[in-house]
TrEMBL record:
Lineage per the UniProt record: Eukaryota, Metazoa, Ecdysozoa, Arthropoda, Hexapoda
Subcellular location, record wording: Membrane
Protein name listed in UniProt: Protein-serine O-palmitoleoyltransferase porcupine
Transmembrane segments: 49-67, 98-118, 125-145, 151-168, 180-201, 216-235, 359-382, 403-422, 442-458
Entry's Gene Ontology BP terms: lipid modification; Wnt protein secretion; Wnt signaling pathway
Length: 459
């Protein structure tokens, strides 16, 4: 079974073209060799995505070059939002563009109204605004907008709403105000309006105040992220099935399908990286000022995880930060478990409340919580350093370098990889006719069996 995950993802989140072009994909034929796979699948996959890549990078590079000449903040906001509008204009559906404008205006009205309420009602308004914006996304998808049209703009709306939700905290809780030009530039910022990632308002303003000089390292940074993106594209589309053919056993096939999905996510993340760098953004924590990099995902830590919690934090760093600040921290007073599940629930809402996505996210939240709790109990019971994070000053009897601890850590890492395959198989867009139960039954519900053992340890 071969499928094109990348095209599905882009149609789900960032689709601007009705036809990406016809190209062949590798079907696991033993008579096809390496260069045949590259010629008939890899190369054509890259060619099919080039129009979107060129529009994204050229537009952001122009913005990045113009930026140092924008002396006033108003000019900066106008150029940022203006280029973002140009990228959004590639949406073919007029209704889709209309919906984006409506969301833009209503969201700003909510922010503006928060400035004219009393301090006692600000917090209530903030909570109401967050719930209303998230609810409107689900309401629009299932009741107001044609599904085919919503598919084209879902990613744009998700990034836009995440920005507005963070602005609610700025305006309501910190008693600050956002001008229309500031809102225009930030919410429609060309660097991340298509592929993301979410950034804070402060980070957005920082790019204007620093005005980083563009040099050869800037170009190299863009090229590095672009090459990694296209490499991940071909792995997802072609090499995963070339290396693990359809004749493999069920466990390898599950791993392959989950691997293909993960690499499709890496493709989107690296494309977002290249767009951010082209626009002039870079990691503020970089000590070497000459390096241009913007980390969104950490593939090595996801592919070889020490725990499921690491997968959660490294899968999409900016979104994890957003959910932590906007959802997890405010709900933590109701308990850690409630905060974790609320965070993953809101995340599923932002992704459109698609059943399989929601099941994956909520299961990931539950599995990671139980795994972390089980490791904490084992650590205390056996005085072994097996928690997710190693101790800064370890007082355990069996420290991280003890052979039994090392074996335990390897086992936890292995079960995390099993969980990734177990959850990842649900994301195959070409097997929607197969139920969640059937897919998990084919793997003997191994993920839930592991969860059950963790639960026994906790009880």
């Amino acid at each position: 079974m071969q499928y094109n995950i990348i095209m599905h993802l882009i149609q789900m989140y960032f689709s601007f073209y009705e036809d990406y072009g016809d190209y062949e994909v590798y079907q696991g034929n033993d008579e096809i060799y390496f260069f045949d796979v590259w010629r008939y699948c890899g190369l054509l996959s890259v060619q099919s995505i080039l129009p979107l890549v060129i529009k994204l990078l050229v537009s952001n590079a122009i913005f990045g070059i113009i930026l140092p000449n924008c002396k006033s903040e108003s000019c900066f906001h106008l150029v940022s939002g203006g280029v973002g509008v140009y990228l959004i204009s590639e949406v073919k559906s007029f209704e889709g563009k209309y919906i984006i404008v409506i969301y833009f205006l209503i969201s700003y009205f909510v922010l503006l109204s928060s400035q004219y309420v009393g301090d006692g009602n600000r917090k209530r308004l903030g909570i109401f605004a967050k719930l209303a914006l998230i609810g409107s996304l689900i309401f629009s998808e299932y009741l107001l907008i044609d599904p085919a049209i919503f598919l084209q703009i879902r990613g744009i709306l998700m990034v836009l709403i995440m920005k507005v939700l963070s602005l609610v905290d700025e305006t309501v809780e910190r008693k600050t105000s956002i001008g229309i030009l500031q809102y225009f530039g930030y919410s429609l910022c060309c660097a991340n309006i298509l592929f993301g990632p979410w950034i804070t308002f402060r980070e957005y303003l920082g790019i204007h105040s620093t005005r980083r000089r563009k040099d050869i390292f800037w170009i190299l940074g863009i090229c590095k992220s672009l090459i990694l993106a296209l490499l991940c594209l071909t792995v997802s589309n072609c090499w995963s099935t070339y290396l693990i053919p359809d004749e493999s056993n069920r466990w390898l096939l599950a791993y392959r399908d989950a691997l293909a999905f993960r690499y499709s996510h890496y493709f989107v993340s690296y494309m977002a990286e290249s767009g951010m760098i082209a626009a002039g953004f870079k990691n503020p924590t970089l000590k070497d000022g000459s390096i241009w990099s913007y980390t969104i995902v950490s593939p090595m830590e996801v592919e070889f995880p020490t725990s499921l919690s690491v997968v959660v934090t490294k899968w999409n760093g900016p979104m994890h930060l957003f959910l932590k600040n906007s959802i997890y921290q405010p709900t933590k007073r109701y308990g850690q478990f409630a905060a974790i599940m609320a965070t993953f629930l809101i995340s599923s809402f932002l992704h459109g409340l698609e059943v399989k996505v929601s099941v994956v996210l909520l299961s990931l939240g539950l599995f990671s919580y139980l795994q972390a709790k089980a490791r904490t109990i084992l650590s205390s019971g056996f005085s072994a350093c097996v928690k997710i994070k190693s101790c800064k000053q370890c007082n355990h009897k069996y420290k991280r370098d003890h052979w039994a601890v090392k074996i335990s850590l390897i086992l936890f890492s292995f079960t995390s990889i099993i969980h990734l395959a177990y959850l990842g198989i649900l994301m195959d867009p070409q097997s929607n006719d197969i139920s969640i139960y059937e897919k998990w039954n084919n793997l003997y519900f191994i993920g839930h069996v592991i969860m059950f053992f963790n639960l026994i340890l906790i009880i």
